Fold this protein.
Amino acid sequence: MCELERDFGSSFFLLDVNKLRENYKKIEHAFKSRYENFIIGYSYKTNYLPYLCKELSKLGAYAEVVSRLEYDLAIKIGEDPRRIIFNGPIKSREDIQYALNNESIVNIESFYEADFVKEYALEHPKKQIKIGIRVNFDISDNGISPHQAGYDIGRFGICVENGDFQNLVMQLKELKNIKITGLHGHFSTSERKAETYRIITEKLCRIAKESILDGLEYIDIGGGIYGELPKSFQTVAPTFDEYAQPICEVMNKEFNDFKNKPTLILEPGLAMVANVLIFIAKVIDIKNIRGNHFVLVDGSVHNIKPTMHKRNLPMHVIRQNEVSGYTKEIFDVVGYTCMEKDYLAHDIAGALPQQDDYIVFENVGAYTIVFNPPFIKVRPSIVAVDDGELVEVRRKETFRQFFNEELYYF
């Protein structure tokens, strides 16, 4: 550990590249063994570390992006623009025209985006333009809404129930060089149940067959599935096979008689990368305040769980000295910021860590890299471990990078 600290600092991330490959292959096999015409669109917003995105592209993943920033990253790492799925609620006229020029898969989710597509079609009357639509429909099960954070309805996509979807389809079909080739149905749910994905797939297939069957090329069920969760989470999550079974069963049933079955697209993020990153932080100090032990580390809650939830991640201590005959203590692990709520772990029972020990936090691959604010300290290094080889894939920031002179006025 001392050598790693010397090279990369007193806190850093480690990326397990072999685990990343393993996750990809497990998801791919679960679905492709049941429905051959299947592709994975990796959700860049979950972790857009360029090295990671490039590795997934090598394995066969498309790039699923929700902004021009992410789109440009996919191009930068060498992705074929025809293998980019452009989603997201805000796309400028320039964004849409650029993506259509590149023949990317574009899923629009509002009427203003449709206007940009129609403008482009009128400007390029001889070009066949393919477009997808993100749809919004009721996914409740027996009247119970599964939406994240308890919301009754989702806010994204074009509503089916009020007629907006059919209206949009008719508008787009008025232009002969526009072809609606797919439907996108990503819904953020709290419990991520396999049965919810059955409902989503069934409704997407029904809507597609009723409205755009003549041009249908893909059904995109979005992402949001669970990955392999740590036992400490005490959450029973569906396996990749348990997700794939109902989804692929529906696809096979609905398109059994089709010579050319539509492509099934899945857009995993958390399931792909949550368990491929760990964060290692050095213990700086231990203090006792009115009987409470606080272990201060060179890290922050932003590094491991930026939403600041109270659930403890799997963690262990790398000790500089052997501990024998220790007294079990209850302690909290706290970070370097000046916020009272900067807790990396609560109420841990065990031998109290000592100064210069290291604490390893697991399962930190989802959203930490992308949702890490420039707050108080520079961002730490990220080191990839690939068959025993170490590669620094993001260097520790410097002052000049943190306060970029092209951005700030001094």
Notes: The mean pLDDT is 96. The chain has twelve helices and 18 strands. The longest helix spans residues 194-211.
